[in-house]
Amino acid sequence: MNLKIGVIAGDGIGPEITAQAVKVLDRVFSLYGHTADYIPLLLGGASIDAFGEPLTEETIEQARNCDAVLMGSIGGDAATSPWYKLPPDKRPEAGLLRIRKALGLFANLRPASLYPELADACPLKSGEEGRSFDLIIVRELTGGLYFGERYTRETDGVVTAVDTAVYSENEIRRIAKKAFEIAGKRRGKVTSVDKANVLDTSRLWRKIVAETAADYPEITLENMLVDNCAMQLVHAPEQFDVIVTGNMFGDILSDEASMITGSIGMLPSASLNESSFGLYEPSHGSAPDIAGRDIANPIATILSAAMMLRYSFNMNTEADAVENAVRQTITEGFRTGDLIRAGEDRSAALGCSAMGDIITERIR
Ligand code: NAD
């Protein structure tokens, strides 16, 4: 397969971590007989520096012509960077919101997994031996409470604020389909999270998810109320495979899920549209405090590249090869500085590119 991959290196540690992910992709492509062209794209601070805008029409067009886009991270230190003296719609993050919209990315995938070797980092029952979990949150990204009509009004001296949550059948069906397809590539279980005991949008959500489930008889579906899900995530995260939920619940639960891994440098993410196109990026930001020092952890970006292989290119064996190489690297004890706990020997900490090399060498 000959692929066209957009690469947004971005700001801060972005260029360092994307370089490692490209190194890994090159290795996996050469081992498995694929080729790729990498198209550099500017977004965020780097685009402001070049064009005075966080996103240009040309970048959107170039991204549309790619099979998928890999991104480092964008943004700078809000206290010191000149980008944050610009109006909000000209700042780096505005470019990211705009490109997601322009590319129709409605499904946000945030895996949260804990390797047994890193169980010490998990804040739950800290240090429990052998604890591990591996779940993915599929969040609807373009509807619900964050996109409904909103206003604040004053009547007879009383101020009232209103936000509206709206979901259509079609919006629910397309995200449910994504969740079932993803579960088919994993352990075959979907937990649909809503607040169906209160909200009409949730009752419709539950009905449409159940209807969609009929097309996926091999997948187990369970429904869970969002308050219970918030508790279960910190009580027994091992029970989850795929969690599918609406925009606001997904926003909150995906941050909760990432915190229980305790390792921000390890968590990938993807945003998908209705076809196989996706934007793949680490869950963390541009870490301006450590940029340019070759000490960032590239694993979240490398695992984002593995998600690209799996979800945009349907290359499951290749994706497994990358994920297994990361797992082996961790099992063998290699660590970047962020994975070394207080009191442990820091002198053996690997740099960003050394970690990229070690993972690349382990791809089979
Ligand atoms: P951050 O995730 O960049 O950093 C938080 C802390 O985690 C820092 O101490 C950082 O050094 C550390 N860290 C993050 N990634 C790491 C890695 N790969 N290896 C080792 N350590 C790592 O969050 P922040 O400081 O709140 O934000 C910095 C900038 O990133 C801001 O401009 C913010 O808007 C932007 N941001 C961008 C995205 C994105 O591109 N999608 C997401 C979140 C934040």
Protein described:
This protein is of the alpha/beta class and 364 residues long. The relative contact order is 0.16. Helix 5 packs across helix 6 (200-213), helix 9 (299-311) packs antiparallel against helix 10 and helix 10 (316-331) packs across helix 11 (352-361). The mean pLDDT is 95. It is built from eleven helices and twelve strands. The radius of gyration is 21 Å and the shape is globular. Strand 11 (268-272) and strand 12 (278-282) form a beta hairpin. Strands 2-1-3-12-11-4-5-10-8-9 form a ten-stranded mixed β-sheet, with helices on both faces. Strands 6-7 form a two-stranded antiparallel sheet. The site of nicotinamide-adenine-dinucleotide has 21 residues, from helix 4.
Strand order across the largest sheet: 2-1-3-12-11-4-5-10-8-9
Q: Approximately what portion of the residues adopt beta-strand conformation?
A: 15-25%
Bound molecule types: nicotinamide-adenine-dinucleotide
How are helices and strands ordered from N to C?
A: EHEHHEHEEEEHEHEHEHEEHHH
Number of strands: 12
Span of the ends, CA to CA: 18 Å
Percent of residues in helices comes to 25-40%
Structural class by secondary-structure content: alpha/beta
Number of helical regions: 11
Largest sheet: 10 strands, mixed
Which runs of at least 5 residues are low in confidence (pLDDT < 50)? none
Give a short summary of the structure.
This protein has 11 helices and 12 strands. It is an alpha/beta fold and 364 residues long. The strands form 2 sheets. The protein has a 10-stranded mixed sheet with strand order 2-1-3-12-11-4-5-10-8-9, sandwiched between helices. A two-stranded antiparallel sheet has the order 6-7.
